[in-house]
Write a structure and sequence with these properties.
With 351 residues, the chain is an alpha/beta fold. It is 34% helix and 24% strand. The chain has two domains: 2-194, Thiolase/Chalcone synthase (Peroxisomal Thiolase, Chain A, domain 1); 198-350, Thiolase/Chalcone synthase (Peroxisomal Thiolase, Chain A, domain 1), CATH 3.40.47. It has helices at residues 20-23, 31-38, 52-67, 91-98, 115-128, 152-155, 165-172, 175-178, 229-233, 243-265, 282-292, 303-306, 313-323, and strands at 2-13, 16-19, 42-45, 76-80, 106-109, 134-141, 184-194, 198-206, 214-215, 240-241, 274-277, 299-300, 332-339, 343-350.
């Protein structure tokens, strides 16, 4: 039986490490407030000019090295992001050029926080159908473009001006979202090989009802023009979130879909050796863990160090889990996530 196997993984972060205490310089918040609500302790932001495809490139090079695969062996790219370099074109073709590859197919997908799970399903279909032989799957984000402040040098500990009290009050309007996110990219190299190890199955869902609970209200073609000065003056280019509704959906849908994918493969949930959930909020993941009755030894979390990096969270966590010995040959690994759209899903893999 052909199975799509992950041969190597890698990730990179933005250049600037930003702690919760650093964010206190920009808005009315505190380390305790952020940790209690999200579990995040720090995150990374890029230097101005570093793009999503730059992070994807760095992650891809590390994944190629880890897999022992040459870049010219890649014959298909799948790129998952909600923060592309440009409104169009997508990031896949730009990454293809930065890697110095020939005119291979490059597919962009937009499933936000479940982007990597959907990307795994698409990659698996391409590989097992023979449409691709060696595939590069990337999840990368530059969320710092959403941030409402302009005093970046001050945030990074430089001598630039601090925000005024008025500016700090403006920044604080968005603190429930801005404290969560970081910039990073993760990548995996996949091939279809004979055997019983690799990707086993998927369950994915979408439901657009209530999408306004997590979305960007401007910068889209539901309005004309698609972006205006008023949008920026009112902060409509920054994501809006109904935190309670998103939390409720996540702690309900994520355990459900894990049970679905396990049932489809005929394995008990308790046979999972490691659960790698999307890293949106540590409190969500703790509730999912309790619902599934999994011990701490079977759950991997790293949101404390990176924040929510959307499509990059799962490949980053997988890379760290593999290289720290938390994923061993033969282990049953489950990926799960929920994101804006709303999209949610789970995948099972025999390492």
């Amino acid at each position: 039986m052909l199975r799509s196997r992950i041969l190597g993984t890698g990730f990179v972060t933005g250049q600037h490490r930003v702690t919760n205490d650093d964010l206190v310089r920009m808005m009315d918040t505190s380390d305790q407030w952020i940790r209690e609500r999200s579990g995040v302790e720090q995150r990374y932001y890029v230097e101005e000019g570093t793009t999503t495809t730059d992070l994807g490139l760095g992650a891809a090079r590390k994944a190629l090295e880890d897999a022992g695969v040459k870049a010219e062996e890649i014959d298909y790219i799948v790129f998952a992001t909600m923060t592309p370099d440009h409104y169009f074109p997508g990031c896949g073709g730009i990454l293809q050029d930065k890697l110095g590859l020939g005119p291979i197919p490059a597919l962009d997908i937009r499933q936000q926080c479940t982007g990597f799970i959907y990307g795994l399903q698409v990659s698996d279909a391409l590989l097992r159908s023979g449409q691709a032989r060696t595939l590069l799957l990337v999840g990368a984000e530059v969320h710092s473009g959403f941030m409402p402040w302009t005093q970046w040098d001050h945030l990074f500990g430089g001598e630039g001006p601090a925000p005024t009290e008025t500016e700090k009050a403006w920044n604080s309007r968005f603190r429930d979202r801005t404290v969560l996110f970081g910039d990073a990219g993760g990548a995996a190299i996949l091939r279809a090989v004979d055997g019983d190890r690799g990707l086993l199955g998927f369950k994915v869902h979408s439901d657009g009802n209530g999408f306004e609970s997590l979305y960007v209200p401007s910068c889209g073609f539901a309005q004309r023009p698609y972006v205006t000065d008023k949008d920026f003056l009112e902060g409509r280019h920054i994501p809006e979130m109904n935190g309670k509704q998103v939390f409720k959906l996540a702690v309900t849908r994520m355990p459900e879909v894990v049970r679905e994918v396990c049932a489809a493969q005929g394995v008990p949930v308790q046979d999972i050796d490691l659960l790698i959930a999307h890293q949106a909020n540590l409190r969500i993941n703790e509730m999912v863990q309790r619902a599934l009755e999994l011990p701490d030894s079977k759950v991997f979390n790293n949101i404390q160090r990176y924040g929510n990096t959307t499509a990059a969270t799962i490949p980053i966590a997988l890379d760290e889990a593999r290289k720290s010995g938390r994923v061993k040959d033969g282990d049953l690994v489950c990926f799960v996530g929920l994101g804006a759209g709303f999209h949610w899903g789970a995948a099972l893999m025999r390492a």
